[in-house]
Amino acid sequence: MFEMKVKTQKDSLTEQIIGAAIQVHTELGPGLLESIYEACLFHELSIQGLKVERQKSVPITYKGIKLGVGYRLDLFVEDKVIIEIKSVAGLLPIHEAQLISYLKQMGGGKGLLINFNVSLLKNGLRRFIL
After folding, report:
1. Residues 6 or more apart in contact with residue 70 via CB below 8 angstroms
2. How do residues 29-80 score in pLDDT, each as one tens digit?
3. Whole-model pTM?
4. Left (φ > 0), alpha (ψ -120 to 50) or beta: where does 10 sit?
5. Is residue 3's pLDDT more than 50?
6. Max CA-CA distance within the chain?
7. What CA–CA distance (Å, rounded) separates 79 from 121?
8. Do 38 and 54 meet the contact criterion of CB atoms below 8 Å apart?
9. What is the span of the domain harbouring residue 77?
10. Does pLDDT of 4 surpass 90?
11. Residues 5-9: what's their mean pLDDT?
């Protein structure tokens, strides 16, 4: 059984990702499509030398069997951190559930839920570890 916890301890990789997200948000501001923030954050992380996969296909596992492509991760950084990008009026429990489901399917790990449609990015950021 998995247990979800909000990550409170500082982590250098997630801090670097958050710093890059802040740069993107500072440059673009709120109000654009998720795909634009995704492309810009991918670029920003790449130029910082991080290994980043965009729209990574992940098969769904059902009753122990992988059933083809089940979902796509917005960004997957250094084979360690899942980033789910939103551009919505406010984060909802369903957005958190989506990221938690991704973490469960990946066997645990770290995740960042980032909503760029806020005036101050820290108000649109949630960290998870499973």
Report:
1. 58, 59, 60, 61, 105
2. 999 999 999 999 999 999 999 999 999 998 898 898 988 878 999 999 999 9
3. 0.90
4. beta
5. no
6. 45
7. 24
8. yes
9. 5-129
10. no
11. 46
* DSSP SS3 for 78: coil
- Kindly state the tokens that stand for 121: 């990015």
Counting the structural domains of the chain, the total is 1
Closest to 73 in 3D by CA, of 109, 44, 27: 109
Q: Which sign does the torsion angle of CA 24, 115, 34, 74 carry? A: positive
Angle between helices 12-28 and 34-47 (to 10 degrees): 130
Euclidean distance between the first and final Cα of the chain, in Å?
Answer: 10
Q: How far apart are CA 117 and CA 124, in angstroms?
A: 8
Q: Which two tokens stand for residue 99?
A: 């990221």
